[in-house]
Amino acid sequence: MNEVTARPEVVAARGIKVTFGAVKALDGADLVIHAGECVGLVGHNGAGKSTIVNVINGGLAPHAGEVLYGGNGGQHGISAARASGVRCVFQELSLCPNLTVNENARIMHAELAGWNWRVRALALVERQLQDIFPGHGIDCDSTIDDLSIAERQMVEIAISFAGLRDKPKLVILDEPTSSLDAGLAAQLMTYIRRFVGEGGSVLLISHILGEILSTSDRIVVMKDGRVVADRAASAFSTRSLVEAMGNVVREQEWLRSTDKRGGEPVLSMPPRRGQGLAFQAHRGEMIGLAGLGGHGQTEMLLDLYLSRNSNWWPARRKEIAFVAGDRGLNGTFPLWSILKNLSIASLGELSSRSLVDRGQEGMLGDGWRKRIEIRTPDMENRILSLSGGNQQKVLFARALATTARIVLMDDPMRGVDVGTKQEVYDILRAEAASGRTFIWYSTEMDEIRLCDRVYVFREGAIVAELAGDEISEKNVLEASFSGGEAA
Amino acid sequence: MKISSGTVRLIIPAASLTLLLAAVFYMQPRAMSYTGLNLLFNLAVPIALATVAQMLIMAVNDLDLSMGTFVSFCACVTATFLQASPAIGVLIFLGAIAAYAAIGVVIHLRELPSIVVTLGMSFVWGGLAVLMLPSPGGEAPGWARWLMTSRPPFVPMAIVASVVIALVTHFLIMRSSVGVLIRGVGGNVRSVERAGWSVIRLRAGTYALAGFFAVLSGIALVGLTTSADANIALRYTLLSIAGVILGGGEFVGGKVSPIGAVIGALTLTLAGSFLSFMRISPDWQIGAQGAILIVVLALRLFLNRLEKREKSR
Known about the structure:
Chain A is α/β, with parallel strands linked by helices.
């Protein structure tokens, strides 16, 4: 350890705090990266990994704490970070899909200016690709759109590691192997070791623990916006890493109801893409869809919805209601009143001869306002006058006010404070007891533990089914990370 | 050999232009001459320039609904100030281009929808045009008239101008590094931003460039018509958007093609002549023109879907 700390610091972020509304994304996190080391960063969803990456690359200004590049403070921002040799490969692809490979290199490398830049960009990318992924076979004159996902990821990695005059000092790789196969991933890991050996540094974020353990010199574990462990990689094993990420000691908070599996399933689906387990839901069940974010849970919910509703012609009586996760994007009607936002899904029942019965609509609104305690003096107020948590309650009420017996929820509690969450959990439990079925995608472990049964997703397929007391943070984490042992 | 998606996008516009041209020649063989071609494509030059301007705006995921009134305004300036006192005329044009850059800055800074801002600006340009020329009139500057009516050997001016516009803008947008950055903004703003570029400057520059091409469109139009009117180019707004889409461009995603845009403008102009040759009454022409547009766009959608299916396999 002493030998490592003696090296110069490339980036030092200390005491970083970032809040988004009521959510503390980072709560005093420290991350120091030295020259010539590969640091592995692990943690569950919402642990703050991507946020701290964004702070380091200058895209996000921290609300407290300081970021030093190469020991110098003062400036912060994208240009300052780039000038200090910090490059980042993002989790979501950040190439311009409409441009060719060499044009993307031109955007990433401002020094490729001047006459004949195309030829030089082409040579640069081709050399770097050959260096990292020998025998790749990518045509660097083709448009990114025409490449496969794996090829795009390879190109983005190569562009980030490439350098004409100023070689990158620190390359941040956020889930770099998420769409690479095992062979390509191994090539990348070999290259990372070589790059680190030549004095560069790498911050590696991955959910494949095998990669992290074999490639990193040091592993940093984050949880709830803090760094909870920071040790040499040799001090960890897969098991101790999983344990460091989760909180295994937390005890069960309430008694789970009896097994409701019996009789006909109300909703079922064969295994996704012919892989993994099949999906089944029974009356009155609360089913959790767990796993890391973006591993096919939302797609599953949409498919479930479309299996009962036509995409072309809306059914008159809806069997399924949907609670959207991203309020701003597909949840609220921002210009409408609270009441209108609530009643929109049940207008069919509220109207006679195609005209909405205002009296009934008002009664429905008042009923739900009392029941779920929407904190507003008047339901005619604009929906945006409510806090985020209360807006979310309105969206829940919208789904629950319908006659639908099945409710799909797409991680609806994002950014909702704890008090509101508890209130909504109580309502959900009461509704489930009265025979409604809930299918709930959540990235939060506390919510997953409320469910009767949990399906864990990995790479678009259901890889594990947990029921009753098997539902624990440790089991869910193990199932979502289990690819690590194979790698 | 694999065909790139850019080439695929050019096939449909090129094929539809060829088909229309063949149909026109079949119905009216006399159009197959120097004068005939010049007459057919004469009015395509200003439309092509306006289409290129619209394409630039669409390359950064915006839409300009003031294109028609702005070109009318430029036509009025050309027929009055630029003709009478060129220095003031040039100054007005520079001011108009600066205004376009300012619109780009405002749209970017305030995150306003470009449609709303440009729709508002269309009334400003329209009003200014009416102030300058309350009734049709004015006179084209001699050099503009000379340029638009010159008769180069073998190939008529309309064709030469279209080819020059297509090549120059192709180089500017598709080959130069400025063009790469402009299209990058349309493709993935965040990526351009993360690479340390100033998106606000890029957007302002794009709008200014679009303003410049729209100015050229106004001058070319007056060069053809010899006089101007405040409402001379109102239909250019929709024609330019249709031209870009017809030429293989898309509303979002920075997918544009300058050569396609010029071909699209030519196709739209030709569609009008084609319908006249078919003796379709002017009452039905706009509807028929729309039908042609729908057919071409449907074809493209079909090709896109084929391409996607091919890719997912």
